[in-house]
Design goal:
By secondary structure, the chain is of the alpha/beta class. Helices cover 39% and strands 16% of the residues. It is built from 9 helices and 8 strands. Helix 8 links the parallel strand 6 and strand 7. The longest helix is centred in the middle third of the chain and has 27 residues. The chain is globular and about 55 Å long. Bound molecules: adenosine monophosphate (AMP) and manganese (II) ion (MN) (3 copies).
Length: 275
């Protein structure tokens, strides 16, 4: 069985329609796919329609941007009920925050000499979701930089003009909202926060104490050493293990759907919680 429990579509910062993400996953032999767009549930219905009758099981998911001790931390909600009113309130609040932040980013970019950054980014964004990759695509299209990676390095990443306060909801509140919506909260890509190993363990323990249940032991492209180590942390802290490509688009800079690999045999897979 191939599980891919982390993937994005164009309702957040991916490139493909939700239905095309599903069909591509099926073509790559994925058995169980979670669509986990950033801070939005908008793709789940059309993804479910595309999955019906294909043999692929679609898990309703979301990837929330949160803060923990002021630091940006991503939390996956897996097997959630997308009709849950509390979850929808949280999603609406994150969407408002995203547009507020986008106006701050745009103001700074304008002062740095970029023309019409908000209108430019909006053309790549969806109605309820705007993210830094949308600014990055505009900066490439308008010729300010040659690649998205350079747009982050020069204009959007840490320490640049686009690095404005994010204002995400607290990790504690997001974990609660996921649980109340019947879902499983998973700490996403623990190796990608620039934390030492002991701080990753502290984060994972805090996440568990808040009611989080899973750790993303495999995320995107990583070495087998990292996978083994994340598996050890999951077991040590008492978290179930999840795995996902974090697919955004067919492009060498992102992992392909279904290709992130299998979990270490000694981990408890997160899907035991809903099977
Ligand atoms: P945001 O949610 O607006 O803060 O944007 C974060 C998103 O930008 C992540 O989910 C990634 O998809 C993307 N991203 C972050 N850093 C980079 C980078 N250096 N190059 C390309 N994409 C990035
Ligand atoms: Mn993303
Ligand atoms: Mn993420
Ligand atoms: Mn992601």
């Amino acid at each position: 069985m191939i599980y891919d429990l982390h993937a994005h579509s164009n309702v957040s910062d991916g490139i493909l329609d939700p239905k095309d993400v599903v069909l591509r996953a099926r073509d790559r032999s994925v058995d169980v796919l979670a669509l986990t767009d950033h801070d939005t549930l908008a793709g789940l219905q059309s993804a479910a329609e595309a999955a019906a009758g294909t043999g692929l099981t679609l898990i309703a998911g979301i990837e929330f941007s949160t803060q923990w001790l002021g630091r940006g931390i991503h939390v996956l909600g897996l097997n959630i009920d997308p009709t849950d009113a509390g979850l929808q309130d949280v999603v609406a609040s994150q969407s408002r925050q995203r547009w507020q932040r986008a106006r701050l980013i745009a103001g700074n970019l304008r002062r740095a000499g970029i023309k019409d950054p908000l209108d430019g980014a909006r053309r790549f964004a969806s109605a309820d979701h705007i993210a830094r990759p949308h600014f990055a695509r505009y900066l490439v299209e308008a010729g300010y930089v040659s690649t998205v990676a350079l747009a982050f390095r020069k204009y959007l990443g840490a320490g640049t003009v686009g690095d404005v306060p994010h204002g995400w909801l607290e990790m504690a509140d997001i974990v609660q909202a996921i649980k109340l919506a019947g879902g499983v909260a998973v700490l996403a890509h623990p190796g990608k926060y620039n934390l030492t190993r002991s701080r990753i363990c502290r984060l994972a323990e805090a996440f568990r104490d808040l009611g989080g249940q899973g750790l993303e032991v495999i995320s995107g492209v990583q070495t087998s050493q990292v996978t083994a180590d994340m598996g050890r942390i999951a077991n040590q802290v008492g978290l179930y293990a999840s795995c996902g490509s974090d697919f955004h688009m067919p492009d060498r800079s992102w992992q392909e759907l279904g290709a992130a690999g299998a979990l270490p045999a000694n981990c408890r897979p997160v899907w035991q919680l809903w099977n």
